[in-house]
Write a structure and sequence with these properties.
The complex is a heterodimer of chains A (about 110) and B (about 110).
Chain A (H helix, E strand, L loop, with lengths): L3 E4 L2 E4 L5 E7 L5 E7 L5 E8 L2 E5 L6 E7 L2 E6 L8 E8 L8 E2 L3 E5 L1
Chain B lengths: L2 E3 L4 E5 L4 E3 L2 E3 L4 E8 L5 E7 L5 E3 L5 E5 L4 E6 L8 E9 L7 E2 L3 E6 L1
Parallel strand pairs in B: 2-12
Antiparallel strand pairs in B: 1-4, 3-9, 5-6, 5-10, 7-8, 8-9, 10-11, 10-12
The chains are: A mainly beta (about 110), B mainly beta (about 110).
């Protein structure tokens, strides 16, 4: 199926651990994004890559590091996890250009204990 | 800076009744406006968008939204809702700047009751 996929779907971990979330899209898009949705459903962009180049970097702690090995993949690595990192993380992709539709993955629910 | 306000966090409505979900935005530059829908435990899907031209835009499943520049609004309407329309609806704005960055509102839960 053509889609944006994320792994894992659920991630439960202890404070202080390091974890990664993987994202892949097979839609032929050249721009990918990471969003964070908090417990109140507020959705905020974290990062965006275009052709493996970082183009959006919001005020996100340095513990969060995105990596884009190629146009189809954008992974998110989080160091020294904190309680406040608990959220649903969505990956999305689109063609480059203005006002392009973004296609979202199913989300990864991260719970930090 | 841009922002989006969705004043209603939850809108309960009976099946087959009309509904309006409100969205207001603020921006000092030209904007593009979007409505995304999130069904339970899923990612977001684009419902409709306004780029330019006709201020009334429609989706394939009966929703419509009207861009009102003077009131800086982009309210979403449907004349008759179904149980299957129950979902979280997010209004979003992006600017005519260099990136495709979306600024989302806080969402409105449309709860359709039988």
């Amino acid at each position: 199926d053509t889609a944006v996929s994320q792994t894992p779907k659920y991630l439960v971990t202890q404070m202080g651990n390091d974890k990664s979330i993987k994202c892949e899209q097979n839609l032929g898009h050249d721009t990918m994004y990471w969003y964070k949705q908090d417990s109140k459903k507020f959705l905020k962009i974290m990062f965006s890559y275009n052709n493996k180049e970082l183009i959006i970097n919001e005020t996100v702690p340095n513990r969060f590091s995105p990596k884009s090995p190629d146009k189809a993949h954008l992974n998110l690595h989080i160091n020294s996890l904190e309680l406040g990192d608990s959220a649903v993380y969505f990956c999305a992709s689109s063609h480059s250009g203005l006002a392009r539709e973004q296609f979202f993955g199913p989300g990864t629910r991260l719970t930090v204990l | 800076a841009q922002s989006v306000t969705q004043l209603d966090s939850q809108v309960p409505v009976f099946e087959e009744a009309p509904v309006e979900l409100r969205c207001n935005y603020s921006s000092s530059v030209s904007v593009y406006l979007f409505w995304y829908v999130q069904y339970p435990n899923q990612g977001l899907q684009l419902l409709l968008k306004y780029l330019s031209g006709s201020t009334l835009v429609e989706s394939i499943n009966g929703f419509e939204a009207e861009f009102n520049k003077s009131q800086t609004s982009f309210h979403l309407r449907k004349p008759s809702v179904h149980i299957s329309d129950t979902a979280e609806y997010f209004c979003a704005v992006s600017s005519s700047g260099a990136t495709n960055k979306l600024i989302f509102g806080t969402g409105t839960l449309l709860a359709v009751q039988p």
